[in-house]
Amino acid sequence: MSRFRICIVALFSSVFFCGMKSISPPCRPESYKNFSLSYISIGLGSGFGSMQPVFKVNGEKFTYTSEQTSYYKGTKLKPVKPLSMGHFRISSIDSILSLAAQIKDTLVYRTNVHIMSGGIHYITVKADGIKLVFDLHNASDPVAGKIVRILNTYIRNEKDKLWLFEWEEK
Q1: Full residue range of the structural domain in which residue 14 is found
Q2: Cα(3)–Cα(142) distance, integer angstroms
Q3: Same domain for 57 and 120?
Q4: What is the pLDDT of residues 15-52, one digit of tens each?
Q5: pTM for this structure?
Q6: Do 7 and 64 fall within a single domain?
Q7: Is 168 part of any domain?
Q8: Is residue 91 part of a domain?
């Protein structure tokens, strides 16, 4: 009877620890290690040359800064130290890759010709087998909006949230 218990304990332990091993970082798919994302905002009109939000993800690490993404000739402003940085959740990567997989093209270009100033937003998503770029000139896209909402969960201060231009023709 004791051999039976030992076998049951050994079997349970191997199943339990093998299951635990499968969720450890070394066993994660390569696409997580090769995942990168960037959100870059460029101000136009009166916002040209101003500090703008830049959010970058490489693998499971993110950095959120404020940078001068456009400038006239002359002095370039120094980048501000990161506003936030840390661990980017695997669930966020999965959600973003799932959203990117919905789009069959590699470039989503939207523009709103009714506005001369405003801003341009570039969002780039890269992983194994996926490269998707959003080039949004005073415009939005539903998938890009969902990606920005995911990124905003990493930003604490409401006034520093990332944004996309929203405009509806009447």
Answers
A1: 1-28
A2: 60
A3: yes
A4: 444 444 333 344 456 668 899 999 999 999 888 888 99
A5: 0.79
A6: no
A7: no
A8: yes
